[in-house]
Amino acid sequence: MTAVDQTLGEFVSALRKAEVDVSPAETLDAMAAVDLIGLQDKQKLRRTLSIVLAKTPEEKAQFDICFQRFFSFEHFEQPPEALQRLREDALAIRTEQGGGGSLDAPAARPRRGAADGSPLGDLLVSGDAAALSLALARAAQAVNLSQIRTLRERGLFAHRILVHMGISRLEWEIDRLGRSENPQDHATAVLLTRARAYLTEEVTRYVENQYLNLVDGTGDRFIAEAVSQTRLSAMQVYYFDHIREAVRKLANRLIKKHARRRKVQKRGQLDIRKTLRRNLAYEGTPFDLHWKQVKVEKPKIFVLCDVSGSVRNVARFLLTFLYSLNELLPRVRSFAFAGELGEITALFEQYPLAEAIEMSLNDYGKGSTDYGLAFRQFADLCLGELDSRSTVIVLGDSRNNYYGNGADVLKSVSEKTRQLIWLNPEPRALWREGDAEMPHYLPHCHVAEVCNSLKDLERIVGQVLRTNL
Asked: Candidates 2.40.128.50, 3.40.50.410, 2.60.40.10, 1.20.58.410; correct CATH number of 246-468?
C-alpha cells in the first residue's frame, strides 16, 4: 500500500467516525479517482472525493468539515497575526540591544549566545508557521497521538507533545530571564511567556482536532462522555437531546447483543423427523435443517415512575431507555405518580416517544409524593395480571412525606412477580434518612440499586433483559 492509499484509508476511517457511510467499493473508487487527479489541487481533490464518498446533503456537509479538519496543515495560523506580532516584538527587542533588524530579515530573539536560548523559543518568534506545523506533526507522531481514545486524554497528549517539542527548555529560559535585573531580559521573558501560551493553545486545539478525526467525527461521543458520569437528576435541560440520543444508542447495543443470544438459543435440538421429511427431494442429504421450536413467552414489564421533583429527570431517561427496546420488550406498561398514580402506556402508542414522556411528567408530576397510595392504585389495576413472567420496576427516592408507606401492598406485588427491581437515584447513605422509606421496602425487593447515570441505566436494564429473555 502506498503512502497516498494509506492516507486516503485514514481519511475514510475519519469519515465513518463522522457518520458518513462509506463502503469498501466506494473507497476503491476514491483511490482510483485520486490516481487520476493527483494531490496537487486541494479544491479539486475535495470536490472529487465529495462526489465519490458523500451521497446525501447531510453527508456532504459533514464531509466538508471532516476534509478541512483532516487535510489542514495550518495549525499555527489562527489567529494569523499572532506569530507576526511575536516576530515584530522580538525584532524590536533585538533592535534595542543594538542588533538591528527589519521585518524582511529573519526574526530572532535577543542575542545572548546559542547556549542561552531554547530552539523552541527561536522557532516561535521566527514567525515560520510551516516550520512550527512540521515540528508539531513530528512530535505528535513521536508520542503516538493516534492512540488517543477519549477526550479526557487531551491534556495528557498535549503535554507529551509540548515536552517533545522542547517546552521544558523554554520554561527554564523564561524563569532565568524573569529573575534577571536587565530590563531587556524581562521584556524577552514576557515575550516568551506569550509565545508559550500561544503554543499551548494551538497544541491543545490540534489534539482536539485529531481526536475528532481519529475517534469521534461528530462530537457525539464527546457529549456522551461529558455526561455519562453526570447525575441524571441534576442534568441541565441543554443536554436532554444529547442524552436521549445516547440512551437510544445504548438501547440499540443491548438489542443487538440480546437478539444474537436469542438467535443462538433457538438453535437447540434438531427436529429429526421434520428435517428428513423436508430433505426427501435431496435424496436424504440434509441441506434444509429444522429445529424443534420452543415457545418462549415474552416478558411483561411494569414500570412505576415517581415523577416528582428531581426524580423526574431519571424517570425521563428510564422511560426513553425502555421504550427504545420495543424490539425486545414489546409489553411494557408504564405508570407515573406523585400524588396519584395513572397509567401512561397509551400515550406512547399515540404520540412520539419524547412527546409522550413530557406529557406523562406534566400530567402526573403534581402534588406531594405518596408511595402508599401509588402502590394501592397499582395493585387495584394490575395485581391480577402479575405472574412469573412479570418484572416490576419501581423508580423513586422513596421519600414519602410521612404518609403511609404501603409496604404490605408492595409485598403482595413482589410475591406475584418474577422480580421486583427498585431503582433509587439517591446514594445508599441517604436511603434511611428523613422521610425515606427504603428500609421498609428493601425486604420485598429482589434487586435494589442506585440509578442516577447512563452507566447505571445500561447495567440495570441489561440485567432485566438477561433474566427475562
From this structure: 3.40.50.410
